[in-house]
Structure prediction request, 357 residues.
Amino acid sequence: MRLTASIAALLVATSAAWSADQGAVKPMEVNPELAELGKRLFYDTRLSGDTNLSCSTCHDPEQAFTDGEALSTAYSGSEGFRNTPTLANVGHRAAWMHDGRLGTNLNDVSREMITEDYLMNMDMRMMQERLKQDPVYVKMFKAAGKGEPSNGGARSALQEFLKSITSSGAPFDTGEMNEAAKRGFVNFKGKAGCTDCHSGDRFSDDRPHNTGVPDNPDIWSDPLRHQTFVAYAKFMGVENYMNVRKDLGAYVRDHKEGSKRTFLTPTLRELTQTAPYMHNGTLATLEEVVEFYNQGGGDDPNKDPRLKPLGLTRSEKTEFVEFLKSLSGASFNQPAYVWEADDYGYEVVPDWKNAKN
Prediction:
């Protein structure tokens, strides 16, 4: 179908925005030696208590650093109660976790992931001793200017590696969007008003909102997931946590009624590789996500009042999906990220279990 003059003019006008506030994500400066150390730590199962998990267990680079599951895995004897978020451009975020409870720096994020009992359940004093016993780590810590292996040095290295994970090659950034995606972008900014929350080059305002996403019943029907949720809710001061059947989200930050069931706006980068969607994995496809918002979101008394039915036509919804797909870059086996798992000449994790026998 031929574009009308007004739509064509709007497409031209919006092209300038693609290189402005919603242009390509700029890579962060990193210390190469420290990031290389962090990369090795990221793939090392010895950072978990029973050596069964590494950071990459849930954050697989081949899936844009997610795991493809609705709800994440967890430490032995537990299961997760939220969807694993992508680590694409994670160094640019202003807050972390779906509820935004961590808002200082990635060093703190690494510490919580490693030490939380339902995540990696590691005593960092033990982790430090494990690192000291690996001659490769001894060399790498020294090369990175961190002296002998230490907990603080390990967290700094992980932070540096995470800062290096930057999106690139998306059609939106390279000027290779198809015409349907361009029309979808027009409605994204206009008719749908998505930029109220999905703003900036990562398409996120890093703030919590309630969009009425339905709860995932598996959290409470699965005993392992429920016990994980209970442990989290108790620690975060949620009242009557044993009987709560709602994920309260950012409520744990301020315990205000209006914050219940609000969650940080997720980035829209790398969507083609990060399904299923939402904080609890309840929407399986981008088509379902678009329809969810086309209907005005879900049903919740605290839902953001800006959410209204959009009235998108069938073709407009298809164009919307095409636009969302245009925000994904090349496969993560390609140079979409600075640091790859196999670009150095030693093992990611030495075969230390067999070596000691």
User: Anything to note?
Assistant: The radius of gyration is 21 Å. Confidence is low (pLDDT under 50) at residues 1-19, 333-357.
